[in-house]
Amino acid sequence: MNEPSPIHPSAAPGAAAAAAEIDIRTRFHDLRAHAGPQVAITVLHIGAEHTAIATGQGDEASAWLVLDIGAHKTARQFFKRSPPTPLEMEHAIATVEDEVIRAVPVLAPGTALLCADAPVREVALLAGLAPGERMAMPLDAMERVFERLAAVAEGRPAVREGLPQGTDFAAALLILREFMHHLRFGAVTVVP
After folding, report:
1. 3-state SS class at 79
2. Residue 160 within a domain
3. CA 49 – CA 180 distance, rounded (Å)
4. 133: DSSP letter
């Protein structure tokens, strides 16, 4: 099956989206060494204003996409309280789902998910993974951290769950969850 051709349609116009595109292609190239040769990978970057992916099997990404969601942007747009309320979470989920699903036609078949973002590393540590340069976080481990965030949204103290109190972290976790869930990634490998 042929890999998708390079596409980068984005609801994120202008110079910021162009910079995000260059950044994700560079990240793909840099993180390629963390996967075996000829293994299809998808590199995820959850930025402040955009989320971007690059995917492919070779040394360079064969396709990439910049999404109009980011940790800070999502938090600013939907979370009026810290921690966010369940209703705020639901509204954010609906928007994030709509953006994430745009990535389906871009993904290389059988791709492994890699990410070098600090908030994703923090989620992996909160999920109980041993600290290391390379941490493979299964979907169910990430879901347990998300369930803890949902409990905090319902009123449980954030400190009791050991979660960061900022809304940007909540938004980054939400984006990661929707990405893994809707695009059917069984794990994300967190790399330096």
Report:
1. coil
2. yes
3. 19
4. S
| Tokens 């449980």, residue located | 156
Establish if 150 belongs to a structural domain: yes
Q: How far apart (Å, rounded) are the C-alpha atoms in residues 114 and 130?
A: 17
- Spatial CB neighbours of 78, under 8 Å, sequence gap ≥ 6: 84, 88, 89, 91, 92, 95, 171
pTM for the model:
0.91
pLDDT grade, residue 17 (50/70/90)? confident
Tokens representing residue 152 in the block? 């905090």
pLDDT tens-digit readout, 85-126: 999 999 999 999 999 999 999 998 889 999 999 999 999 999
Backbone angles phi, psi at 56, to 5 degrees: 160, 180
Residue-number span of the structural domain to which 166 is assigned: 14-190
pLDDT > 70 in the chain, percent: 93
Is 8 inside any structural domain?
no
CB 144 within 8 A of CB 134: no
Backbone angles phi, psi at 140, to 5 degrees: -65, -30
Nearest to 47 by CA among 106, 115, 139: 115
pLDDT tops 60 at residue 51:
yes
